[in-house]
Specification:
Number of helices: 21
Radius of gyration: 27 Å
Strand content: 5-15%
Number of strands: 15
Structural class: alpha/beta
């Protein structure tokens, strides 16, 4: 019987209490091996119920050599294959790098557990007595860290659910107003409330104009997948919460509030926009926009576009500040960390060395400060990235991994550690493993620009250029003041190039080079994109740029060969274009990749 005609094998996973697996007939077929149970549980709780082999080996056999861990994983998978009925379609897909549960074949007892309309949903108080994966004991510190974090997430969900069951909001009331120091936990999420604008002046179109501007801002801001937009008058959409007694939280539940005033005086329209933090009431951004009253019909669109662009940048900037702002125990540690960051923002060999001294001094003062550990992890990631393919890069990745894991153990809910670990996997040429970690980072902080940037790099490594471009563009919008924006723009240029958008690739590459004129990567993207657009023009910019890059980087073909694309054809694309231009110009550097 072909697999296409096989009946799907439906299994039930019980994650509350002791782990158990039941087939469609209710027969208990739970594996006898604890690690086999753990592997199924980890897959079922993972994004898209998918994990890489590397990730699973690190979590279940971290104390073993790579070859031993790989063999143990193979034995475990062989054991799990015994659960497969010979006449049924597989419930698990296994390939050389990824293991996944087949969608639609697994039913979890957690799926409808918080839905009171579900007959099998347990009572609120019963949930408090249920432990996630009770008794699953794997003597591996990596697994223990994973299980501890999953239980924390579960307990938080249960606590919130029980609190809502015991004292639900009163009818017709959203949430009572709260003082700044009593603002509810929803403020922890990236969210904004768009309020009505005050009207100053007397013109018939004032109310229409004001309400239309608010609606335009809501629609525009809600296109950012990382941001929740809350307003009573909001149109429904994937990224929009409508504030009413039945549809969602009140406007003050957002982290930020947008309001302002419209002023119509004679021939001029003035719009003041104010962005505030709800927990403190602090104004973090304000700006005035002006247009001629005679352009009333197009003025609203122009102002909406301008305001939305500014607001998106400001919200992104402040979200990055929230993500990377640590709580220090003393001023001296804080000073060393921020002095180190200043040195890192002005990169040359002396400043990079000074940054490390600052971070190491901070570590001596406070060895359990997560921001210090993350700063050191980033320092080693930077060193490894600038030395791709060179001696010493592996040692930097080992150090970066160690500091990120130490930070993760101290702050298991923090997205930063997952983002750094994802960046490390990219440099290890493991984009599949990186995507799993970066998805977890974005689950914990949907507005973390660093995670979007690295997810874009991982997708680009895998050849998924269009998806990569979306991620990288989001990163540039979220953090327009990023000191390493030149790198993100370089990756964005590359993604646009391989997606076939050569003009956009050239524009992004130029922006990268404005920030870092000696960065070789966007230079070769400009050359390649210009060649695609003007393959037969001997006066095109590609030739002038080639003269420059061949002079500044005589090892340019080695650098191209070391770009960690999964498909070597992508490296060959750049190399072949440069070799053609080099041949035309009779300038061909002599190194291992040029022949």
């Amino acid at each position: 019987m072909s697999q296409g005609n096989r009946t799907p094998q439906l299994l039930s996973f019980h994650l509350l209490g002791p782990f158990a697996v039941f087939d469609a007939d209710g027969k208990d077929i739970t594996p006898k091996s604890q690690k086999a149970c753990a592997l199924l549980a980890m897959l079922s709780l993972s994004p898209r119920q998918t994990r890489t082999r590397v990730w699973l080996k690190d979590k279940l056999w971290s104390d073993r050599a790579p070859a031993q861990a790989a063999n143990s994983l193979r034995q475990c998978l062989h054991h799990l294959r015994q659960l497969q009925k010979p006449d049924a379609a597989p419930f698990m897909e296994i390939d050389a790098s990824v293991i996944r549960l087949v969608p639609g074949t697994i039913q979890l007892d957690l799926t409808d557990v918080f839905d009171p309309s579900t007959p099998s949903a347990p009572a609120a108080q019963t949930l408090l007595q249920e432990q996630l994966l009770e008794g699953l004991d794997i003597p591996d510190p990596e697994f223990e860290d994973w299980l501890s974090l999953e239980r924390q997430v579960w307990e938080t969900k249960v606590t919130d659910f029980v609190a809502n069951q015991i004292s639900p909001p009163s009818d017709g009331d959203v949430v009572p107003d709260a003082a700044p120091d009593q603002v509810p936990n929803a403020l922890l999420g990236p969210s904004v409330s768009v309020q009505a604008f005050r009207i100053e002046g007397d013109a018939d179109m004032h109310p229409y104009f004001a309400e239309g501007l608010v609606d335009d801002l809501i629609v525009s801001l809600s296109k950012n997948a990382w941001l929740k937009v809350i307003s009573k008058n909001a149109p429904r959409g994937n990224a929009v919460l409508v504030a009413s007694a039945t549809d969602g939280p009140g406007p003050h539940m957002a982290r930020y509030t947008i309001d302002g005033a419209l002023r119509f005086f004679g021939e001029e329209i003035g719009v003041q926009v104010i962005l505030r933090k709800n927990d403190t009431g602090e104004v973090i951004w304000s700006e005035n926009f002006k247009l001629e009253n005679a352009r009333i019909f197009e003025a609203r669109d122009d102002i909406s576009r301008q305001v939305s662009q500014h607001l998106t940048q400001q919200l992104g900037f402040h979200e990055q500040h929230v993500a990377y702002h640590g709580s220090f125990n003393d001023l001296e540690t804080w000073q060393h960390v921020h002095l180190g960051k200043w040195y890192m923002s002005h990169p040359n060999s002396d400043n990079i060395a000074q940054a490390r001294l600052c971070y190491e001094r901070a570590l001596e003062l406070d060895p359990d400060q997560p921001e210090v550990l993350f700063a050191l992890s980033w320092w080693h990631i930077w060193q490894a990235w600038t030395r791709i393919g060179a001696p010493g890069s592996h040692e930097h990745l080992v150090q970066a991994f160690d500091f990120a894991k130490r930070g993760q153990r101290l702050t298991p809910q923090d997205a930063t550690s997952y983002a750094f670990l994802g960046a490390i996997e990219i440099l290890r040429s493991n984009p599949g493993g990186a995507l799993a970690l970066l998805d977890e980072a974005l689950q914990r902080n949907p507005s973390l620009a660093f995670a979007y940037a690295n997810k874009g790099s991982a997708l680009l490594q895998l050849g998924r250029a269009a998806e990569a471009a979306d991620m990288l563009e989001t990163a540039t919008i979220l953090n327009p003041y990023d000191r390493y924006r030149f790198h993100t723009l370089g990756e964005f240029a590359s993604a646009c190039y391989f997606a076939g958008d050569y003009e956009r690739a050239k524009t992004a590459a130029r922006k990268s080079l404005i920030l870092s004129p000696k960065y070789w990567y966007p230079t070769i993207i400009q050359i390649a994109a210009d060649h695609r657009l003007h393959p037969s023009d001997p006066h095109a910019m590609q030739h002038a740029l080639w003269q420059q890059v061949s002079r500044d980087y005589p090892d340019i073909f080695d650098r191209i060969a070391d770009i960690p694309f999964s498909d070597p054809a992508m490296n060959a694309d750049f190399a072949s274009i440069l070799k053609k231009i080099a041949s035309d110009d009779q300038i061909l550097p002599k190194n291992r990749s040029a022949s």
